[in-house]
Amino acid sequence: MRKLFSGLLLIVLGVCLILWKLNVLPLPAVVAGVGAFGIVIAIFMVALILWGLVNMTFSAVFFPLAVLCIIFKEPLGIENLVPWTVLIVAAIFTAAMNVIIPSAKRNRTSFNLNMGGKSTTSEVGGNSEYIYQSTSFSEATKYIRSKNLSKVDLNVKFGEMSVYFDDAYVPSGEVTIDCNTSFGQMNVYIPRDWYVENRATAALGEVDDHVTKDQGDPEGVRCIITGSAFCGELELRRI
């Protein structure tokens, strides 16, 4: 269903662009001076803003708004505010909302809106040493069941992923989990007895660390968290 919706949306967008260029479909004055590429980007930014509002991911709201300001700077008469002023304001607003409404409070708020994608739940592992999981424009829950875990790569783009490691085994005594999220949210749940070293960074995003304050056994499994949150959120919790 999601692929059908996305395909039909792209077809409608293409037809509208052709009709616009043929002067069959007039555009509002606010977009009359914007090129076709800018309008396409603007449509995706609006969709991203809606996703950010539903999931309360503030970076996915304010930064797309800043991009819209940059695209429509001439019709809006704000040439002197772009690009840096609106981008800085977007970063300030994102930080402010993350302080006013912390992630723990946002996670207690339940939303059930699909936005054309679908939510999936799956078990991953077997005897795999290496596991790769990626989510884009959708929501996914992953349960890592590997009996020989060594390395995990997790990627989220414009979506949300929750990953549980409570039934994963690390015979080598060390596992690296690389977490990368862009305009999305990733929730990683780590066993209480694992000793965690958090090396993840944030760029216009947030790394919400709830694990290093409650360390596991230093002689047990050593878990190294790497990666980055770019205009998104990475949350680390114990389970």
Taking all Cα atoms into account, the compactness measure Rg is 21 Å
Shape: elongated
* Poorly predicted parts: 1-5, 107-116
Largest sheet: 6 strands, parallel
End-to-end separation in angstroms reads 34 Å
Order of helices and strands: HHHHHHEEEEEEEEEEEE
Beta-strand fraction estimate: 25-35%
Helical segment tally?
6
Give the integer mean of the pLDDT values: 80
Order of strands, main sheet, comes to 1-3-5-7-12-10
Total beta strands? 12
How much helical structure, as a percent, in the residues? 25-40%
Class of secondary structure makeup: alpha/beta
Domains counted in the coordinates: how many?
2
Brief overview, please?
33% of the residues lie in helices and 30% in strands.
Q: How are the SSEs placed, and which strands pair?
A:
Blueprint lengths: L1 H20 L14 H20 L3 H13 L1 H4 L7 H17 L2 H5 L11 E6 L5 E7 L2 E6 L6 E7 L2 E5 L9 E9 L2 E6 L4 E4 L2 E3 L2 E4 L12 E9 L2 E6 L1
Parallel strand pairs: 1-3, 2-4, 3-5, 4-6, 5-7, 6-11, 7-12, 8-11, 9-11, 10-12
Helix pairs in contact: 2-3, 3-5
Structure description:
The protein is of the alpha/beta class and 239 residues long. The protein has two domains: 2-102, no CATH class; 119-238, no CATH class. The protein contains six helices and twelve strands. The chain has helices spanning 2-21, 36-55, 59-71, 73-76, 84-100, 103-107, and strands spanning 119-124, 130-136, 139-144, 151-157, 160-164, 174-182, 185-190, 195-198, 201-203, 206-209, 222-230, 233-238. Mean pLDDT is 80; it is low at 1-5 and 107-116.
